[in-house]
Design brief:
The complex is a heterodimer of chains A (468) and B (250).
Chain A lengths: L4 H17 L8 H9 L3 H6 L6 E5 L4 H12 L5 E3 L7 H9 L6 E6 L4 H8 L3 E4 L7 H4 L2 H14 L5 E5 L3 H7 L5 E6 L25 E7 L2 E5 L12 E9 L3 E7 L4 E6 L4 H16 L4 H10 L6 E7 L2 E6 L4 H13 L5 E5 L27 E5 L3 H9 L8 E3 L3 H10 L6 E6 L1 H13 L6 H12 L7
Helix pairs in contact in A: 1-2, 2-5, 4-10, 4-11, 6-8, 8-9, 10-11
Chain B lengths: L2 E7 L9 H13 L4 E7 L11 E4 L4 H12 L2 H9 L3 E5 L1 H6 L2 E3 L5 E3 L6 E19 L5 E16 L7 E5 L9 E2 L1 E3 L2 E4 L10 H16 L11 H17 L5
Parallel strand pairs in B: 1-2, 1-3, 3-4, 4-12, 5-7
Antiparallel strand pairs in B: 5-6, 7-8, 7-9, 9-10, 11-12
Helix pairs in contact in B: 1-5
Classes of the chains: A alpha/beta (468), B alpha/beta (250).
The structure holds zinc ion.
């Protein structure tokens, strides 16, 4: 039996409302799951109602932040429909499509493994590929397989669609070679480059298997490479950043080069990785016709997306939440924390749910070592707290300075207790530990639940603003 | 001071799944007993260091494995001679597969292995991914539980008469079918368990260190007990996970 679109969407919408009312969850993916089940082609047909089509952002790291930045850039020009942070599987996209009334452009962040399915349904006019890092091998098998599936997505892209790639990621640069209608972005600031980190991905050419010559690496394997085997090399990007100044945990500024103009951008989000996120958003904005000033003001107005370096005032103390989820992302978080001077107390929370990755071995591929010299106390939390503690123990951190507090909420309290008035506590949770913390903070009146924010944003202004 | 020389094969290519965690555990547990651990990285085309006490091979992604496979395939004799000379060995994931006779993929393409361990691996439908617990008897009469995480597309088949590293209690093991996990050949152990393996199974690290020391000392020395409270906790959680969710095809 085929259920008509109008009925399926009604049922699916009401499921979302019921689920929010009963307090069981955000309803950020359930309606879409129901819709996909009732009417498998519905997503594609709902997408066709968007007069300006859809744009899609995917990456293993930073897609939520780049999507928030792109939304800020594009909102003066379009009425946007988008998925709330983190709801980036095909059910989340379908849920967003249920709320498209009045919107004319879809802007979606899409999970790297869900991309083939979502791209086939949405037929995006612009596809932005940010990076491919090893992430949750237990979920997706191996990186190579993911790159192959992305190759298929690129091959299936309509000829008139724009492909935006991070030219500093050789795997993505490869995907874009030979295609018309490509916008490449990258960083050109050797002062911020260094050697390839431990266990970096993509060290061998996907054409010929020879190890790349890396002149320098900025974040993980993102950098300036060339292949001595087949001659494949990084091209000069169309959109790039230079004169980058990093200001610790506060933010950064850089010069943004667009094809026609160059302008100065001040970013409220820390770290070189957020410069990449900004470049992805700028390139996508440019592809969709945003002006240079819209791009700059969009980037500058973007606050942290859900849990990606959120600052929360708690009495006389501040809490800084930095999500960690895979080696490259966590390395950048460590680098950013250390740039401001190592904190005395640090809370790390490691869960091993499906959304975190059930295989926790990745923590051994993170370079936590720069934290060790200044750190007085590590509070290891989450279901796999003991594994975290072992990671630090075998790195030479004294066991007597490690506390195991399994519940993230209690670990937060213990961390705050050890933080002096006026001070800042840094907490780095994995995804589901972050959700636990968000819930506790909301219950205590310190922060909104993210689906409440998303729902309010939808109600207030039509398009979700993606921002806090 | 007695020194343990560990030859780490292909550290640049086979290093995912936290192989450096395993090396860190070897080092720390040796040093705390007053033994020095010397790690020698052995790359493609480089010979094993002489007087080798312990050999380590980790796991890699497909492309990296393919890059080192031809070199490893030529090393069978060299590794076997080191084992005969008394070296102990630990190989995890890809390193384990490639110590067998080879890996046959779905198109019947065969990647030759070193032929040190009596086994071969064939590609299967779907990956075997999840938490694992196994029971092993490293010394006669002493049953040990070893826990870890597995993630492999290959199905490893032991030759008739070959000895597994352990018996699967929860999880898939070599092929999801035989109930065997890994392979044991004297002091050499190959296994799919990472996570990494040694931090949460410190008794296995100690057994391997003892076997490595036996090459120069004649027999494994009595290793003084260490405070393994955190290790036991990590082990208990991993065991619980294996019981809860190990061995389910996703
Ligand atoms: Zn090449």
């Amino acid at each position: 039996m085929r259920i008509p679109l109008v009925i399926s969407t009604l049922v699916a919408r009401s499921v979302g409302a019921t689920s929010r009312l009963s307090g069981r969850g955000g309803g950020t993916t359930l309606p879409g799951r129901v819709l996909n089940t009732l009417n498998p082609g519905a997503g594609a047909r709902l997408a066709k109602k968007l007069a300006q089509g859809s744009a899609v952002i995917s990456a293993t790291n930073g897609k939520t932040t780049s999507a928030a930045m792109a939304a800020a850039i594009l909102s003066p020009r379009f009425r946007l429909a988008g998925n709330p942070a983190g709801a980036n599987l095909s059910s989340g996209v379908a849920t967003a499509l249920l709320h498209t009334r009045g919107a004319d452009l879809g802007l979606f962040e899409v999970d790297e493994a869900a991309l083939p399915r979502v791209a086939a349904a949405l037929r995006p006019r612009a596809l932005c590929l940010g990076n491919l890092f090893r992430d949750q091998l237990d979920r997706y098998g191996e990186l190579e397989m993911l790159a192959e599936r992305w190759r298929g997505v690129v091959a299936g892209l309509a000829a008139e669609s724009t492909l935006i790639v991070n030219e500093d990621d050789p795997q993505l640069a490869q995907l874009a070679r030979g295609r018309e209608g490509v916008i490449r972005f990258g960083i050109e600031d050797a002062r911020h480059g260094g050697p390839l980190p431990h266990a970096a991905d993509a060290r061998y050419c996907s054409n010929c298997g020879v190890a790349y010559d890396y002149r320098l690496a900025y974040v993980g394997h993102l950098g300036e490479y060339s292949c001595p085997g087949c001659g494949f090399e990084r091209l000069k990007p169309d959109i790039w950043a230079d004169e980058i100044a990093l200001e610790g945990l506060i933010g950064s500024s850089f010069r943004l080069h667009l094809p026609e103009e160059t302008l100065k951008v001040k970013l409220g989000l820390p770290g070189l990785y957020n410069v990449y996120n900004a470049l992805a958003a700028a390139a996508l904005g440019h592809a969709l016709g945003a002006s240079a000033s819209e791009i700059a003001s969009g980037l500058e107005s973007t606050e942290a997306a859900f849990g990606r370096s959120e600052r929360i005032e708690i009495g006389e103390k501040r809490l800084l939440l930095l999500l960690i989820k895979n080696p490259t992302g966590a390395n950048e978080v460590v680098r950013t924390i250390v740039a401001d001077g190592t904190p005395q107390t640090l809370v790390l929370a490691l869960n091993d749910g499906i959304a975190d990755g059930q295989d926790v071995s990745w923590i051994w591929d993170v370079d936590f070592e720069p934290l060790l010299s200044g750190l007085e106390r590590l509070i290891a939390s989450g279901g796999r707290a003991a594994e975290l503690a072992l990671r630090f123990k075998y790195a030479g951190f004294p066991e007597s300075r490690i506390e195991l507090v399994l519940s993230p909420a209690e670990a937060l309290d213990r961390g705050l207790e050890l933080t002096e008035a006026g001070g800042e506590l840094v907490v780095c949770p994995t995804y589901t530990a972050m959700l636990e913390l968000q819930k506790v903070l909301a219950e205590r009146g310190h922060a909104d639940l993210y689906w409440q924010r998303a729902a309010r944003a939808r109600k207030e202004s039509g398009p979700p603003r993606h921002q806090r | 001071m007695t020194r343990i020389r560990l030859c780490h094969l292909y550290p640049d290519q086979l290093n995912i799944y936290a192989d450096r965690g395993n090396i860190a555990v070897f080092r720390s547990r040796a040093e705390r007993r007053g033994y020095e651990l010397e790690v020698v990285g052995i790359g493609v085309g480089e010979a094993l260091a002489p007087e080798c006490d312990l050999i380590y091979l980790g796991g890699g992604q497909d492309r990296e494995q393919a890059l080192i496979a031809p070199d490893l395939a030529r090393r069978g004799g060299e590794i076997s001679r080191a084992l005969e000379d008394g070296a102990a060995l630990l190989a995890v994931c890809g390193g384990y597969q490639l110590l067998g006779r080879g890996y046959r993929d779905r198109f019947d393409f065969e990647m030759l292995g070193a032929g040190v361990l009596p086994l071969e691996t064939v590609a299967g439908e779907g990956r075997l991914i999840g938490d694992v617990s196994i029971e092993c008897e490293l010394d006669p009469g002493e049953m040990l539980t070893v826990v870890g995480f597995e993630n492999h597309g290959g199905r490893t088949l032991l030759d008739p008469g070959a000895v597994p590293f352990g018996r699967v209690v929860h999880g898939f093991g070599n092929d999801g079918d035989s109930g065997f996990e890994g392979c044991r050949l004297g002091k050499a152990i190959g296994t799919y368990l990472h996570g990494p393996l040694l931090p949460r199974n410190p008794w296995l690290a100690d057994w391997l260190l003892g076997q490595a020391l036996a090459r120069t000392l004649g027999e494994p020395p009595e290793l003084e007990a260490l405070d393994d409270e955190l290790e036991y906790q990590a082990h208990a959680v991993a065991l619980h996970r294996a019981r809860e969710r190990g061995g389910k095809l996703r």
